[in-house]
Amino acid sequence: MSILPGTAPDALEEDDLKQYVADELARVRDRSVGLTTDVLDEAELLAQHSRLMSPLVWDLAHVGNYEELWLLREAAGVEAMRPELDDIYDAFEHPRATRPSLPLLRPREAGDYLGLVRRKVLDALERIPVAHAGSGLLDGGFVFGMVLQHEHQHDETMLATHQLRRGDPVFPGSDGLPAPSALLTSAEVVVPAGPFTMGTSTDGWALDNERPAHRVDLASYAIDTVPVSNAAYRAFVEAGGYDDERLWTPAGWRWRCESGKRSPAFWLREGGTWLRRRFARVEPLPDEEPVQHVCWFEADAYARWAGRRLPTEAEWERAASWDATTGTKARFPWGDEAPTDAHANLGQTRFHPAPAGSFPAGAAPCGALQLVGDVWEWTSTEFRGYPGFRAFPYREYSEVFFDQGYRVLRGGCWATDPLACRTTFRNWDHPIRRQIFAGFRTARDV
């Protein structure tokens, strides 16, 4: 039985769920290796390509240490294999800028450690119950889903490191895939006023910050049909948007002045031509793609320039998940069916966003497109817990970041795996972050 990545685990019985977990563990590890030891030598893997990011080999060994902690020690009761690694690969003990000074495992040693952990995990998977375990950690295979999503998130972080890396290209310059079909019928869609269910209490692999489901009542609003494109954002740049203090929040204007930025990250200008650097290649800026590598301050300033605003997190989720006609909520904008290439640009099948207006099969009931995939979308909302939030299984996944000025991003991007993306999934980052694959769409009151 072949199960698509991103399938909800809740309907799977024991044997099918275990096979799904085993297949996904193999798939994510192939991805991690394909971003590290398959493409770079030891010196490149140990190097810190930006103080914003870890050495790639730190990420690689960290996902193994996390897997050992949660799948072997916590779920299977296996004694610690390499307890001395816990401190080295504790993300909360060591900020990224300091990680190169740690006694990191060399790439070959990291690979051996990951292989040993994985063999023990697969042995444990055969003997522990997952589908109806009765325990919060094991029930529905939650802890396996948590570890899988964690590794995919680090793989996306590794891609951000690759984007910052200088050197020869290691990824293909083009994907060779056919252009996705496009359908753009209007610049915006109106979402009617009314209540909807935000978050989830039933998705077995949803993380703690997505819970619990709760009712939110919204006024009507309009939201862009597609994410803001490079062409649209370039108009803001060329109109002097970076030089008009009125368009920026006080904190945003301070960032603009102190950073000296005048365009998105990785944009270059030669005469009258705009270019971009993408994974060690310089190429013409594609007007039709959604803009990416903009921080929250830039997105907010553009929205003001356009006479609009960023959507709230609740507005984004209602537009992406809620069918007002039937009063039902879906895991994805198109329904509960796992994503395919007809629905969205996910899973690193392309190394860039698809043109704005692509994937009509992935449209939400409200008519908006590309709410999942292509670029993470900044919202106006600060990251905090939902009413009734309960940290599970550890505070450091979400709770320690609440009310610290982080802004919520939604929808995933081209680098996000379908397993780590759904309409309730919440991402967050500092409002100054630009190395992430983030863009935005705008909204307005009606």
Average pLDDT score:
95
Fraction of residues in β-strands: 5-15%
Kindly state the percentage of residues in helix: 25-40%
Second CATH tier, the architecture of the largest domain? Alpha-Beta Complex
* Helical segment count: 10
The total number of structural domains is 2
Number of strands: 14
Q: C-alpha Rg, in Å?
A: 21 Å
General form: globular
Q: CATH class of the largest domain, please? A: Alpha Beta
Main pleated sheet: 4 strands, mixed
CATH level 3 topology of the largest domain: paralog of FGE (formylglycine-generating enzyme)
Strand order of the largest sheet: 12-11-10-13
> pLDDT below 50 for ≥5 consecutive residues: which ranges?
none
Q: How would you explain this protein's 3D organization?
A:
This protein is of the alpha+beta class and 446 residues long. It contains ten helices and 14 strands. It has two domains: 9-164, Four Helix Bundle (Hemerythrin (Met), subunit A); 178-446, paralog of FGE (formylglycine-generating enzyme), CATH 3.90.1580.10. 29% of the residues lie in helices and 12% in strands. The strands form five sheets. It has a four-stranded mixed sheet with strand order 12-11-10-13. Strands 1-4-14 form a three-stranded antiparallel sheet, covered by helices on one side. It has a three-stranded antiparallel sheet with strand order 5-6-7, with no helix packed on it. Helix 3 runs antiparallel to helix 6. The longest helix is centred in the middle third of the chain and has 23 residues, at 142-164.
